[in-house]
Amino acid sequence: RELELTACSLKGVEEEKKELRSLTESLQNTLEELSLEKQQMLEMLEENESQVPPPTSPSKEQSPIWGLHCSLRQIEEKMQQLLQEKLLAEKRMKENEERSRALEEEREFYSSQSQALQNSLLELTAEKQQAERDLKAEVKVRMDLEKRLREAEEALQSLEQGLNSLNFNKEKEKKMKADVSNLRKFFEECIRNAELEAKMPVIMKNSVYIHKAATRRIKSCRFRCRRTSASWNDMKQSQSFIFSPAEAENIEELKEAAKRLSRDQRFRKTIYQIMRSQKDSASGDKK
To answer: Which residues does the annotated region (Disordered) include (predicted)?
Structure first.
């Protein structure tokens, strides 16, 4: 808006400068004509004064010399008036020149400001688009995390149901082993991610809600782990035929690792960050 007003004012000043320049030239031409006329009048007056005898009549108004003096005086007054108008026009032209320079500087200033604002707008647009892309990627990572946690919960719940069941067969035994394998894989990956996170920390923005959601999920897993641990201790003797001693020992180690990890506040808060870091690294390798 200011740039438009400045440009409009500058245009008006330029038009006024043209008018004043034209007026000054016209006044100068008129002054030159009057100066020439005055010179002619003086020559005529000198000629008449040398040739005309002294007047016998007391009336000066009827004398030709007196008429020439009156015309000469009128010419001088007119020239003086035109000279004043010319000086005033030149003064206004000088003021317009200064105003024109000031407006030109103002226009350049507003033009640079406009360009800077345009560049800032482009940068903000790019940042907005990048933020939207980051948000989409973050939502996708969150969904992946939710899916992984949900699968771990389901495996833990299925294992709990299997441990609480009194009837066992090959199919249930296979299912329980698969659940144990899934849980082992989940927590081993969590441990690897924790080690990776210690070497390559990742600072996430706007992820408070996601961290809290992941924490709630892991706390739920911890609660089920405790229930599973109690059921396992009660039925360990009667179900020893299902697993070999080595497998039973591995399950005990798995439960202990799960308990330690679920109590680790820092671990719960960084699970999401680690998974996001790995996903970003994988995306970079693909590119």
So the answer is: 42-64
